[in-house]
Sequence to fold (167 residues):
Amino acid sequence: MAKTTINHSCGHSQVVELYGSLADRERKIKWLEREGLCSACYKAAKDQERIEESAKAAEANKADYLPALEGTPKQIAWAEQIRAKVMPQIDGMVGKGLQKISEQGTPEGSEWQIEAITKWHDQIRARNQAAWWIERRDCSAQELLTRHLKAHYSDQLAARNMRAEVA
Ligand SMILES: [Zn+2]
Fold:
């Protein structure tokens, strides 16, 4: 390894530690000087990227008539992205699911499902706590619905022995 001062493309110089053969290190130095950013500029660029992505997500959510989020600016920025990703999945799943139930479901079995899913859909679209979305950042649309049905409709699920899956 060798410590080398790099004059990055952003105009800042920084001492970096390089590993590998001399040829490898020279290649790396060339790249860092031509295209690389110093740590501070790299972080600033990444932050800017995140701000732009979040702004785009917020715009999409607004266009989708979702409510404004509550939380710290950082939480809101994160939650907007989570919501923008999962909400189209939720809308699609609900649409398909309701259609499937009304086509195949027995009248008495399908009624509560249609009601449960419709109600859940309204509720989740109205969720405006950024923290709520962040807690569920790894959940798919299906997981969110399944969790809800298990929590609130366990009796009906057991009675009908129906699968919570609708997608
Ligand atoms: Zn820099």
User: Anything to note?
Assistant: The longest strand covers residues 2-7. The beta strands are 2-7, 13-18. The mean pLDDT is 90.
